[in-house]
Recover the amino acids of this structure.
């Protein structure tokens, strides 16, 4: 599965939830590399990867580093609704992330790929939840963890994003924002 996302260097602290949510602990996993997604999952044929990567580097190089801040805990589900995410929403800097997304969307269209959601909600996923055994549990998970983490979020400073990661094929490519 291929993806494009700004890379974050975010150290989040653990918080324990006060009220119980009935979930198999094996179905909840911390996101190892927090990020802001800029694409839906997509597939590029191998012969298109090199050109795509060159064009992505070119279109992002003119943009400078951006800063984002966070507002609240939200829950999201993937399109198949078999995986949920507990995330912190981007508040400050969303317009800067939108500028990056606009360039990525243009490139995705050129390569015959779906653009990102029409009305994006930029967020950083912190936890993933396997919903195959916990259907309907995301609202409970969000409410429980959201209450426990709201105070922590208010203490997060803005995070500087100066690099975009592109996972395509079986490789990861990194592009500095403002490299030109």
């Amino acid at each position: 599965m291929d993806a494009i996302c700004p890379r974050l260097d975010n150290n989040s602290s653990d918080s324990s939830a006060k009220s119980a949510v009935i979930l198999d602990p094996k179905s909840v996993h911390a996101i190892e590399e927090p990020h802001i997604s800029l694409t839906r999952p997509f597939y590029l044929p191998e012969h298109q990867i090199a050109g795509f990567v060159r064009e992505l580097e070119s279109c992002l190089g003119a943009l400078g580093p951006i800063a984002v801040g966070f507002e609240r805990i939200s829950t999201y589900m993937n399109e198949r609704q078999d995986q949920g995410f507990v995330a912190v929403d981007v508040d400050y800097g969303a317009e800067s992330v939108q500028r990056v997304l606009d360039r990525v969307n243009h490139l995705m269209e050129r390569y015959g790929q779906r653009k990102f959601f029409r009305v994006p909600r930029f967020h950083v996923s912190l936890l993933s939840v396997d919903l195959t055994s916990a259907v309907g549990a995301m609202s409970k998970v969000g409410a429980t963890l959201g209450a426990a983490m709201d105070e922590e979020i208010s203490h997060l400073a803005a995070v500087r994003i100066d690099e975009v990661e592109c996972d395509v094929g079986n490789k990861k490519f990194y592009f500095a924002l403002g490299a030109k």
The CA atoms of residues 30 and 127 lie 4 Å apart. The domain at 3-9+18-176 is CATH 3.90.1140.10 (Cyclic Phosphodiesterase; Chain: A,). The first strand starts at residue 3 and ends at 6.
